[in-house]
């Protein structure tokens, strides 16, 4: 076989891998890009077209009423009603119109609708219309006409101004930070001490306790939430702790995050070179000194990996926040606020898209700041034992 016409398996496999990764990246980032673009779009265009058509003109079928009998004027024996369906200076343009809802594009701009009673109707591209009839209009409400209007792409900051201003989202943003930062730091601190003990300290039942910790990973949060809440309320009644408080949600997130944290950190710390630990012990260092001066600095990738997991989990949490926190302005978190916006505004997607993008800005910053440690922290120690 001629080697000039063969492809080495390495190159074909690498090409397939790159294409596959490219597809994953596109599928993964497309919703975020769409959300970002939609958050700047005008609400009228957002309802009728998708974000992929944001940079092209959009068409919308709508209706409008002409003036009633009180607005008609008589000129040379004819009764005329003139006005406009569009605001003055609007960038929109009408391309077709009609007298029936099922035929909004029956007539083109420049044509005239002739009714059976002798009345005529003309509509221009700028929205101005003129209704003319030999008989006076008798109804207070004018006749209804339908038309197709095109709108050029419109981008605005009004969505963000409305969300950050009138909807009190800024306070919810601060509340979420108040919940997330301690709920990320506390489990890391506790899990780091526990992981060191499981890795380098000898005590009875060490392996059994670690198996129990790993087994807690499969316990559903929803199943354990009620027992944890009842236990917290009992302890709170003994020490006069407020039921709906930040302390409760910090402890809840700490408890739910500890199994994964201990598992990840233990795998990483147990993979550290035994020689440096033994050398420190020979030099007279205590376990606390070894942990703080050697193990913690060497375990930064694993700590950063779990910090990403925990931060994203707490920041996007809704269930635990609803249970352990109230809905007052000084406690409600972003996810709860977004849920209220959805229930209050319904189809006002321009508010929801802007709110959602504000909510994901901080997690994206955290992830990109720590992502260089992410893979190292997850894979280190995975092949040991």
Roughly how much helix do the residues carry, as a percent range? 55-70%
How large is the count of helical segments? 13
Helix/strand order:
HHEEEEEEEEEHHHHHHHHHHH
Say how many strands there are. 9
Cα radius of gyration in angstroms: 33 Å
Global shape: elongated
Class by SSE composition: alpha+beta
Total tally of structural domains: 3
**Terminus-to-terminus distance:** 46 Å
The CATH class assignment of the largest domain is Mainly Alpha
Strand order of the largest sheet: 2-3-8-7-6
What is the residue-mean pLDDT, rounded to a whole number? Answer: 83
The assigned CATH architecture of the largest domain is Orthogonal Bundle
The CATH homologous superfamily name of the largest domain equals MetI-like
Report on the biggest sheet: 5 strands, antiparallel
**What is CATH's topology name of the largest domain?**
MetI-like fold
Low-confidence stretches: 381-385
Strand content: 5-15%
């Amino acid at each position: 076989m001629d080697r000039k016409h063969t492809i080495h398996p390495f190159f074909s496999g690498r090409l397939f891998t790159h294409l596959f990764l490219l597809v994953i990246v596109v599928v993964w980032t497309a919703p975020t890009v769409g959300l970002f673009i939609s958050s700047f779009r005008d609400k009228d265009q957002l309802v009728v077209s998708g974000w992929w058509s944001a940079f092209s003109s959009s068409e919308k079928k709508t209706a409008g009423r002409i003036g009633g009998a009180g607005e008609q004027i008589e000129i040379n024996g004819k009764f005329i009603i003139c006005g406009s369906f569009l605001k003055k200076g609007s960038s929109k343009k009408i391309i077709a119109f009609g007298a029936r809802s099922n035929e909004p594009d029956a007539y083109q701009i420049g044509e005239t609708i002739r009714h059976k009673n002798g009345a005529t109707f003309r509509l221009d591209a700028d929205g101005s219309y003129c209704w003319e009839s030999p008989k006076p209009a008798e109804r207070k409400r004018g006749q209804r006409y339908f038309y197709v209007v095109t709108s050029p792409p419109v981008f605005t900051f009004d969505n963000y101004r409305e969300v950050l201003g009138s909807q009190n989202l800024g306070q919810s943003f601060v509340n979420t930070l108040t919940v997330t930062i301690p709920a990320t730091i506390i489990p890391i601190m506790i899990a780091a001490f526990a992981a060191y003990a499981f890795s380098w300290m000898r005590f009875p039942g060490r392996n059994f306790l670690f198996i129990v910790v790993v087994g807690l990973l499969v316990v559903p949060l929803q199943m354990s939430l009620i027992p944890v809440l009842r236990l917290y309320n009992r302890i709170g009644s003994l020490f006069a702790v407020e039921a709906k408080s930040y302390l409760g949600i910090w402890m809840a997130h700490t408890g739910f995050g500890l199994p994964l944290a201990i598992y990840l950190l233990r795998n990483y710390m147990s993979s550290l070179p035994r020689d440096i630990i033994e050398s420190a012990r020979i030099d007279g260092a205590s376990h606390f000194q070894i942990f703080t001066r050697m193990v913690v600095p060497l375990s930064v990738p694993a700590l950063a990996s779990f910090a990403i997991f925990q931060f994203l989990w707490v920041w996007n949490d809704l269930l635990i926040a609803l249970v352990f926190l109230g809905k007052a302005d000084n406690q409600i978190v972003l996810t709860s606020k977004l849920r209220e916006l959805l229930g209050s505004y319904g189809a006002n997607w321009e508010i929801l898209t802007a709110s959602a993008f504000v909510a994901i800005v901080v997690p994206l910053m955290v992830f990109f700041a720590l992502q260089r440690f992410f893979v190292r922290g997850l894979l280190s120690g995975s092949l040991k034992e």
